[in-house]
Design brief:
With 183 residues, the protein is mainly α. 80% of the residues lie in helices and 0% in strands. α1 packs across α2, α2 crosses α3 and α4 packs across α5.
């Protein structure tokens, strides 16, 4: 009976996360469309701002998924986890975590740019440019076309560089551990 309740809870959690992520993406698309496609009014402002708040809630889910994958691969029950979890699921978790993190950082960059004004970054950021900058930063590519200028922007970029580096190390160690334990 306990497994059935745990399965329902996991199902509900997946449903809630799916709804929150979908709402956040749609809300940020609405915000990106203002004023080019959609008019700026109370509804579009509310949708955009609440979507940004939802993105920060996604951080908790992201941290939970990463810690669950680490516990599964390196924890006391790693053999059961590795035998019972298909490789595609582990790949999906790791890749999804990377994409969610890049997305969350891009929203944080938009927030910093909006609060601190045009001096926060070397270029004006919209959603597409913030996502591009987030991915370039997290992969430590650093083309230099967009750079942080304010103290908060530099701090958050530094955090993302560290996160990206550690996440890449985690990513490769997961697969090394996975291959080593499958043998």
């Amino acid at each position: 009976m306990m497994g059935l309740k745990g399965g329902r809870a996991a199902c509900w959690l997946r449903a809630v996360v799916t709804v929150v992520v979908t709402y956040c993406i749609l809300g940020l698309l609405v915000e990106a469309a203002v004023p080019y496609i959609l008019p700026e009014n109370a509804i579009t402002t509310y949708v955009g701002e609440s979507a940004k708040a939802g993105v920060f809630a996604i951080w908790f889910y992201l941290i939970w998924r990463i810690s669950k994958a680490i516990r599964g691969i390196y924890g006391a029950r790693s053999t059961q986890y590795l035998e019972g979890t298909p490789l595609w699921r582990i790949l999906l978790d790791v890749t999804g975590g990377f994409i969610l993190a890049a997305f969350c950082f891009s929203v944080l960059y938009l927030y910093i740019a909006r609060v601190q004004g045009p001096g926060a970054f070397s270029a004006d950021l919209n959603l597409g440019e913030a996502l591009y900058f987030s991915i370039v930063t997290m992969t430590t590519t650093g083309y230099g076309d967009i750079s942080p200028k304010s103290g908060w922007a530099k701090f958050v970029v530094s955090l993302q560089i560290l996160f990206g580096f550690l996440y890449n190390v985690l990513f490769f160690s997961i697969f090394a551990g996975f291959v080593g334990r499958r043998r």
